[in-house]
Amino acid sequence: MKSKAEQAIERISEIRYPLILQGCCIGVLTGIVVSFFRRILIAAESLRDSVLREAAGGAAESAGTSGVPGMQSPGTAMMQHPRMAVLLLIVLAGCFLGTWLCVRLVPLCAGSGIPQVAGELKGRVFQPWWKVIPAKIIGGTLAIGAGLSLGREGPSIQLGAMVGKGFSSLIDRLATEEKLLMTCGAAAGLSCAFSAPLAGAVFALEGLHKNFSTDVLLGSMAASIAADFVAFYVFGLTPVFDLSIRQALPLSLYWTLAVLGVLLGFFGMIYGKCIAFTQDLYDLIPSKAGRLAVPFLLLIPLGLWYPMAMGGGYRLVTQVADENFVLSALALLLVMKFCYSIVSFSAGAPGGIFMPLLVIGGIAGGLYFTGITQVFDIPGYYIDNFVIYGMVGYFAGIVRSPVTGVILITEMVGDFTNFLALSVVALIAYITADLLGSVPIYQQLLERMLRKDPDCGMTDQLRRNKVLLESDVYISSIMDGRRLKEMKLPRGCLVVSVLRGPEELVPGGDTELKGGDRLTVLCNQGRMDEADRILKKMCRTERIR
User: Fold this and answer.
1) What is the spatial distance between Cα 10 and Cα 19, in angstroms, rounded to a whole number?
2) Could you say which of 102, 153, 275, 400 would form a disulfide bridge with 354 (CB–CB 3.0 to 4.6 Å)?
3) Buried/exposed 115-138: b ≥16 CB within 10 Å, e otherwise
4) Which helix (H) or strand (E) holds 470?
5) Comparing C-alpha atoms, which of 408, 351, 409, 355 is closest to residue 385?
6) Considering the entire predicted model, what is its pTM?
7) How many CB atoms lie within 10 A of CB 52?
8) CB of 26 within 8 A of CB of 185?
9) Once rounded to an integer, what is the mean pLDDT over residues 305-324?
10) pLDDT per residue over 513-531, tens digit each?
11) CA-to-CA distance for 158 and 164, rounded, in angstroms?
12) 397 close to 272: Cβ distance less than 8 angstroms
């Protein structure tokens, strides 16, 4: 009888087309789950906005009435109707209790879910998919629906990955295939959440695997397209952000993009440090209930006097682009949204920072444009452009996935005329954040999670499971022109295949590697992260000759 290692090697060699078919199945299932999650969130947020409108006497927009002269604030109306205030407090307490129960019973449903998925793909985390899926949906709905400044996109990625893991368990796949199917599900989750199939597939490579693999790309594309088809069927063909870009930015104004990119890269570094600082402060509160209570309690003053800071903030992007704010109001909105987003996320509630990041970036882009128009003669209709430039630059500076950011914003807005400008801002913001020593936010969150709980559901038996890693040998990397035995992989890891063009070599210690080779490495799941770090250092980092 063949060992699991031999089965894994045989299956992985012919997995490409089965993975495409399985990716389609996972995409459809993920599309159904995430569309359901998205639909109930829309209903919950719509109900919350209706309550705020009614509390404000029906005169306000669903985004809130703060700062608009002549309109009654929700706070004033609540004081005049104490019964309504008591009822809302009871509902808020129920949302808090339900969220706390989800996080207490299933700790890995807390936060965005992307660090958990990345950790599992590295063999450092084990998530029980049958628990995470319902806990994430219920907890996320209660937290985001109540008004915490969180997004549905990170949870959608985790839900998709768990659908992929559940699918793998039901058809009895080995650990290597399970991780590929989880990646397909994660890509499908992002695709369905944003109606952005290309961004879903690219994020699987750039944000999760950090490595290009044709098998991963094809499977993820199949899953993303299938999930997007479901999303289009449920939600229609309208882009997530209803922004009409009236004109592409002329080259004579590209200097403004360089300044914006630097500012957003610096702002992204500040965001990461604020997240870490706030999480340190929350650690001083001994109980999860106490930590979760903070953002829920802050909903009371925000709901009464500044409801624009609540929720994911989808409508804020359009409102900023419509020039509904003066400079001082934009600055206040940016500060309030920035602070409450950090307070909401750092408490550990089930919800993501994906959309809040984009919203904060859009506000920052609008603020920047409004500021420079005070000094330079720039037509006001370019504010739409700068809103989306702010979104992509801030995303690239924090998440450090610039290609995903450019494709995501392009698909979400439905405009391709600003592709070059988006790329410029994303690249400059990425470089700025990197030079400032900023750690990508999801890597930062994963490292923190593993420091607090090194096991994260993993057992010795799970760590001993055999998995396969793939890695290219870059031209001019350390291993280009060197023998295989010089790579010094961790004990128990074995290079089982070297693919050189169409030819597959049977590797030995004296096999000389060349740039362009593709390695397949067999190792224990518990050694995945260590082996991948060595492969990255030796094979995927160019050396200076």
Assistant:
1) 14
2) 153
3) bbbbbbbbbbbbbebebbbebbbb
4) strand 466-472
5) 409
6) 0.91
7) 23
8) yes
9) 87
10) 999 999 999 999 989 989 9
11) 10
12) no
Q: What are the φ/ψ torsions at residue 11 (nearest 5 degrees)? A: -70, -40
List Cβ neighbours of 391 (8 Å cut-off, separation of 6 or more): 317, 358, 359, 361, 362, 365, 405, 409
The yes-or-no verdict on residue 73 having pLDDT over 60 is no
Helix, strand, coil share (%) of the chain residues, nearest 5:
70, 5, 25
Give the lowest-confidence range in 62-66, 107-111, 182-186, 416-420: 62-66
Task: State which H helix or E strand residue 13 sits in.
Answer: helix 4-13
CA distance 511 to 62: 66
Give CA 366 to chain center in angstroms.
Answer: 23
Report how far residue 341's alpha carbon sits from residue 26's, in angstroms, rounded to the nearest whole number.
31
Query: Residue 21: which pLDDT band, with cuts at 50, 70 and 90?
Result: very high
The answer to whether the beta carbons of residues 146 and 45 sit under 8 Å apart is: no
Taking Cα atoms as reference points, which of 50, 343, 334, 351 lies closest to residue 193? 351
Alpha helices in 171-253 (DSSP H): 175-194, 197-203, 214-235
Q: Do β-strands 466-472 and 518-524 pair in parallel, antiparallel, or remain unpaired?
A: antiparallel
CA–CA distances in Å: residue 168 to residues 19, 25, 184, 307, 456: 11, 11, 11, 43, 20
C-alpha 375/C-alpha 16 separation (Å) is 56
Contacts of 108 (CB under 8 A, 6+ apart): 116, 125, 127, 128, 132, 456, 457
CA distance 163 to 136: 12
Neighbouring-strand partners of residue 542: 477
Residue 82 makes CB contacts below 8 A (sequence gap 6+) with none
CB within 8 Å of 228: residues ≥ 6 apart: 27, 31, 191, 192, 195, 196, 197, 200
pLDDT given for residue 298 in this prediction:
96
Return the residue matching tokens 């993820």. 220
- The whole-number average pLDDT for the span 326-345 is 96
In 3D, which of 273, 277, 264 has the Cα closest to residue 433? 264
Dist. CA 131–CA 117, nearest whole Å: 15
